[in-house]
Amino acid sequence: MELAPYTSRFPCATKLRPREPQLLTNPKRTFPKLKKSALNLDTRGRHSRRSKSSLVVSAREGGGPEAGTATAVVTEKPMLGRFRVSQGYPAPFGATARDGGVNFAIYSANAVCATLCLISLSDLQDSKLTEQIPLDPQTNKTGDVWHVFLKGDFIDMLYGYKFDGEFSPKDGNYYDSSRILLDPYAKAILSRGEFGALGTDGNCWPQMACMIPSFDDEFDWEGDLPLKYPQRDLIIYELHVRGFSRHESSGTEFPGTYLGVVEKLDHLKVPMGLVEELGVNCLELMPCQEFNELEYFGYNSVLGDYKVNFWGYSTVNYFSPMIRYSSAGMHNCGRDAINEFKLLVREAHRRGIEVFMDVVFNHTAEGNENGPILSFRGVDNSVYYMLAPKGEFYNYSGCGNTFNCNNPVVRQFIVDCLRYWVTEMHVDGFRFDLASIMTRGSSLWDALNVYGKPIEGDLLTTGSPLSSPPLLDMISNDPILRGVKLIAEAWDTGGLYQVGTFPHWGIWSEWNGKYRDTVRQFIKGTDAFSGAFAQCLCGSPNLYQEGGRKPWNSVNFVCAHDGFTLADLVTYNNKHNLSNGEDNNDGENHNNSWNCGQEGEFASISVKKLRKRQMRNFFVCLMVSQGVPMISMGDEYGHTKGGNNNTYCHDSYVNYMRWDKKEESLTDFFRFCCHMTKFRRECESLGLDDFPTAKRLQWHGHAPGVPDWSETSRFVAFTLIDSVKGEIYIAFNASHLPVMITLPERPGFRWEPLVDTSKPAPYDFLSSDVPEREVAVQQYAHFLDANLYPMLNYSSIILLLFPEENA
Q1: 123 is a catalytic site residue
Q2: How much is the pLDDT for 305?
Q3: Do 487 and 356 contact (CB within 8 A), yes or no?
Q4: Interior angle at CA 801, CA 799 and CA 804, nearest 5
């Protein structure tokens, strides 16, 4: 039987937050087989041979809507009768090994008939269907749940479903009995085993199928338990799994994989002795749930290569880890890939690092009405997606569809999924992409249906923001999920911006986009931002205090995966996205960046020195601000993307961690970052559980106790009482002019410099191991004796108070 063709996803060139891909540098690359001895990977279960299907790369020149068009032909085999079939159970959803067999259960309210499809691993590569088991609506359906129980030989066997019913897009139904659909609750999805390699005949969307669990699926956690750090103590590192170890300079055995991350984890951990590594205690993994990196596959005429979905913000299945991020690929029907992800989590915990996942419950890879029918759309489109009265897809995500999050079935699905990642995969928290979509009313919003009674004055329609969204209520009060970290990206592309107002139940944190914008403006010397900058340093009480939240509810960041890197932020005034093949029309135009006087990397020595100083200023600000700091991968050594602020489509060095560049930076910016993270961890006052008051914090200007909050002020300084360090003086001079400041008088004590970003390395941070440290300190003795300190333009300082006799 031949499946109807569909095209790759449409580009999202003009939206604020792009979701696209590119630069496939080596589409035929292969990975070595997984060695079980390596990294102590314990995989116990049945093993199948690795797929040997031919992988062919082909695409139409110029891309366009037909680039990557895929047609899958499924040839039916006669029923083999290898399984004993019985009624089954309606719960739990998904495929569950029990009672010597496997139970299959799936929700579909609007389908009139359902068929369980069994596909062997070898038949999957040939687009063949191994066996079909029709489900009887009388015996294999309870309520809106279809179910069946099978006993038999499931070795190398996969599954999917066919549903039949009305195909009427205007009524919200896309039933097509020729499609083999993925189970939304499947724990692993198989189609291709290698990242970036096309399917047979250049197919971007070869047939996919779901792993069937077995009784001997095991993983040795070796006693792993949640670290449960207080959120105020976190230093988050945003990491792309493939990009972290894919570059040849990583020297890993399994580059671009979960195992590759494990091999390089020591780069991130908190050092036990000398400051040699970055010292973060939390990873935020960019999307690791199954997605199709070939979704946007199309020819890029600028580079003469092909685009891929590198970032992964387009989920195919929410329970399955990204199979092609594993070294094992489809080996053992995806079980080894699951165990590789578990290994990553276990080894991160072993090094004192929590693991968060970036999850995308705002839309799926099925796109709009022109997108593929993979799973949710074919199972029950009107339930899983937010639809207009005539079946059109609402597009609050900017990616073609909007997940119907507050529908009762969908919100239970999301809660089940999050619970799975916490209980089965030991994940410590989640960052929710475009989380404001989760606050919008579902299709056919009805307060009586949701709350059990009508709400007076309730005139809400589909997509309206809800003050108490049922999904967030469920997550926030769930006995399992309430104990993990929950971070919202509190906006969407439909214009809903909720930074500071996201429904929180006292536990949700937010990516603080206002922190990013304000800090960028102040550090580059924009007038009228000194007061707002001071709020950022205090954990943004203007946003969070009134609602009863704390500083740690603010996740502070200057850069993230989308937008300029830290190095590019001080090198480019304008985006340079021509390599994306969209005539520089994609990506954000308002970056609040400053090139320090010359555009691009080729600049004078004085400009380059100023750029280094500004990078240090940004990092000092991030580390001394109340709240939770987040560092973007590569910023610790000054990674550049050449001014491209939207690298969604590049599987290349542009998005790869450059370990060779990190080595070059060991005595320069990387060293500075390591010492600053260590300083933050040591200071009791830089991770407060509540907003600082006048008892602890005092503001200063050029003179002590006289802050300048005028619109022309570009100077902010303050002292902090710290139970470990005593008292700390911190100042930022964002003016183009140097200034001589007067320090607060402390009889019997004197101030001593620790950080001065105007100094070259290693004197930018005067750690105890700096050569001739005492000489460097003495150079300022005559100023400090007079309680003065000279600050250069665009610089920041940290001074510590010491007893006079020890000075």
Answers
A1: no
A2: 86
A3: yes
A4: 130
